[in-house]
Structure formats: C-alpha cells, structure tokens
Write the structure tokens for this entry.
Amino acid sequence: MKFNVSEIQSVIEERRTIKPSQFKSRKVHKEIVEKLLNAAKWAPTHGLTQPWHFQVFMEEGINRFADFQASTYKTITPKEAFNKSKYKKLKDRPLESSVIIALCMKRQESQKIPEIEEIQSVACAVQNMSLLATAYGIGTYWGSGGVTYTKQMHSFLNLGKNDKCLGFLYLGYPSIDWPKGQRKPIEYFTDWHLK
Ligand SMILES: Cc1cc2nc3c(=O)[nH]c(=O)nc-3n(C[C@H](O)[C@H](O)[C@H](O)COP(=O)(O)O)c2cc1C
C-alpha cells in the first residue's frame, strides 16, 4: 500500500461541519491557512485552468466582512421581511471564527471549459482544504446563506463579471466533542452495470 489507507479513510469520514458557535477562542494561524491553500491547489482542474480564487479574512478583515454582510442584508431586505435575529447572526457569526475564506471561482477568459466544471473544480479544492483541516483537528463550516449570492457580495469581493462566489469556509478549533456524521450505505446511491 502506498499510503496509510485507514488513516486517510478516517480523515475523509471524520471531516465534519462544525459551526462557528461551536469554535473555541483558539485562533487558526496563518501558517495553517497557507497549508490548506497549498492542499486546495492540488484539486483536479479541467484544462489546468486552476479556477479557484480564495480570499482570506482574518483579524480586522473579519470585522469588515461581518459589518458588510449585516449592512447588506439590511439594505436589500424590505422592511416588512427584515428579521432581526438573521441580521444579528450575519453580524455575529463571523466574529466567532478567526479565519473565513471566501470560496470563489475565477472564470477563464476564453470560457472554453464549461462553467459547471470550473465550479466542480473549486468544490474539490475546498474539500482538500477541509480534509487537511480535519487532520489538524480543525472544524470547517461551508456557509452559503445570507447575502452570499448577491451582487453586493460580488462587488465586495471584487469579482469579475463571470466569476462566482460559492460561499465561505469558516475555520476553528471545536469547543465540543468532534461530531459524528451519518451517511446512507452505498446501495442507496449506486447502480452497478456489469453487463
Ligand atoms: C456548497 C455547500 C453549501 C453549504 N451551505 C451551508 C449553509 O449555508 N448553512 C449550513 O448550515 N450548512 C451548509 N453547508 C454544510 C452542510 O449543511 C453539511 O455539509 C451537511 O449538513 C453534512 O454535514 P457534514 O459536513 O458534517 O458531513 C453547505 C455545504 C456545501 C457543500
């Protein structure tokens, strides 16, 4: 065996979504973030376009991100639909994390590779980060709610016309016991074609 298969399998199975409210105050250092970004870049990419673009928010950047999210929600939400607790969550949740990575797809100029493949490629890169984070004992939370897909967020992130923000990866050391996951057995989602 070239690698320790059971360790790798454990990392895959134990990668868990852990929400920022379940993070402890211990910060994730920049050196670790760099390791995660270096893992991200080894994702498969059709035509080697390497369509990922990550924007890392730390320190003051997190406050700026939190303020922007919350104020954008306030601006774009009609008065009668405004939800105070949603607003508070958008403002407070980022502050529970020491690192937030905006997960963006940078569209190649020629647009030769189908967009769906570029998005898939970024998702693979995110999984690489999440798996390595798991190995470090760091929980990840991929959030895509709130104002993620708005044109305001698009310009906040300085994205090009055809680029896309796919969400945000929050990182943190869990304050809780590592959660157990659950999945259906393979029979539920696999058809075998043997002839
Ligand atoms: C593209 C994507 C977007 C997601 N967005 C959200 C989100 O907005 N809110 C949320 O609670 N979880 C979000 N998640 C996390 C899922 O809820 C989580 O992966 C799922 O519950 C399975 O749990 P696990 O990651 O621990 O296996 C997202 C996951 C993906 C892949």
Remarks:
- The pocket of flavin mononucleotide is lined by residues 16-17, 142-145, 167, 181 (CB under 6 Å).
- The first strand starts at residue 52 and ends at 58.
- Residues 115-135 form the longest helix (21 residues).
- The mean pLDDT is 98.
